[in-house]
Design a protein that fits this description.
The protein has 340 residues and is of the alpha/beta class. It has 2 domains: 14-249, Type I PLP-dependent aspartate aminotransferase-like (Major domain) (Aspartate Aminotransferase, domain 2); 251-339, Aspartate Aminotransferase, domain 1, CATH 3.90.1150. It is built from 13 helices and 11 strands. The chain has helices at 14-23, 35-48, 60-71, 85-88, 93-98, 114-118, 149-161, 173-180, 222-228, 237-247, 251-270, 293-302, 325-339; strands at residues 53-57, 76-81, 102-105, 131-138, 165-170, 195-199, 209-213, 277-278, 286-290, 306-309, 314-318. Strands 1-7-6-5-4-2-3 form a 7-stranded mixed β-sheet, with helices on both faces. Strands 8-9-11-10 form a 4-stranded antiparallel β-sheet, covered by helices on one side. It starts with 13 loop residues before the first helix and ends with a helix. The relative contact order is 0.17.
Length: 340
């Protein structure tokens, strides 16, 4: 099966699979006391800065929950875009685990603005109101759009000046860095992000994420919160070894660049077809668009994808590190034939 439904549908990069096989030898101490985890930890420090600490977890929701628990108390509120993954797609997990309400902010492209954040910065020191505690943002956003370095710096400066932490959900951070042509550190540590949820499952890993704590003040409770959140892996080496190969030799960048390039190729082909209208800028590996119903039906007959907004006929197509040019041409041919 080939699809454009999600980069979660892609396989595992051969180099990552090879690393898993090489790790699967003999016995090793559990819970991270092994050479593979130590090696991955060193690479995280080289990538994000010596002050960072990496806590490997099973999945994205788990990493977001741990990060948010580190930065909040139950009387806090978490500010996020109305399209945010924690608000729309995590079944209330962050609210249940932190006890904090999520305060959604309206946005047309998934990106928080200074004005939107300021609209939620009220009620400070009023015991009748939840206290704003964290700004949550996604890089890339749920619409595939990308925050620039300047936008991130402005957000973190505003948040920190009002006593708030900033959490970045970096499930597709690699795609954002590839699009902007900057390092992972430039989009995180250098911008003042406090905690990063760093994912690779959408970009060639088999499973797992890392909670990367960039603000040392948040370190003391991390290991306890990870354990309480049921995210401490006994055979940690199988999570950590993937990140070692992912961060080595720029594999994260190679994979992300390819996925982005395939998205651009798909965009260039689709925009020439009458009736196809893009609803968001194509800045990463996700495309959001509408098209006439006959074209959608023809696409559904041969390809698996998701509707983003079925009422508007808006659909989402996502490319992956293993999307081929043949995949792109085959989808384009399906739409072109239906259009004619």
């Amino acid at each position: 099966m080939r699809s454009f439904a999600s980069d979660n549908n892609s396989g595992v990069h051969p180099a990552v699979m090879e690393a898993l096989m090489q790790t699967n030898t003999d016995h090793a101490y559990g819970y991270g006391n092994d050479p593979w985890t130590e090696a991955a930890d060193r690479l995280f420090k080289e990538t994000f800065g010596e002050q960072c600490e990496s806590y490997y977890v099973f999945n994205g929701t788990g990493s977001n929950i741990i990060a948010l628990q580190l930065m909040t108390r139950p009387y806090n509120a978490i500010l996020c875009a109305e399209t945010a993954h924690i608000y729309v797609d995590e079944c209330g997990g962050p609210v249940k685990s932190t006890g904090c309400p999520l305060m959604p902010i309206q946005t047309s492209d998934g990106k928080l603005t200074l004005e939107g954040i300021r609209s939620r910065l009220h009620g400070f020191n009023d015991q009748h109101h939840s206290q704003p505690g964290v700004v949550y943002l996604s890089q890339c956003t749920e619409f595939g759009t990308v925050y620039t370095v300047e936008e991130l710096l402005a957000i973190t400066n505003l948040a920190h000046s009002n006593g708030l932490y900033v959490h970045m959900d970096g499930a597709r951070l690699a795609n954002a860095a590839a699009y902007l042509g900057v390092s992972l550190k430039a989009l995180t540590t250098d911008c003042g992000i406090d905690v990063l949820s760093f994912g690779g499952t959408k970009n060639g890993l088999m499973m797992g994420e890392s909670v990367v704590i960039l603000n040392p003040a948040l370190l003391p409770e991390a290991k306890y919160i990870r354990k309480q959140s049921a995210q401490l892996a006994s055979k940690m080496r199988y999570l950590a070894c993937q990140f070692s190969v992912y961060l080595s030799h720029d594999l994260w960048l190679i994979n992300a660049k390819h996925a982005n390039a395939m998205a651009q190729k798909l965009y260039q082909g689709l925009k020439e077809i009458p009736g196809v209208v893009f609803t968001q800028k194509v800045e990463s590996n996700a495309l959001f668009l509408t098209m006439p119903l006959p074209l959608i039906q023809a696409l559904q007959a041969k390809w698996f994808f998701y509707f983003w907004n079925e009422e508007k006929g808006e659909l989402r197509l996502v490319t992956s590190f293993d999307t081929t040019e043949d995949d792109v041409e085959a989808l384009l041919d399906t739409v072109r034939q239906a259009a004619h």
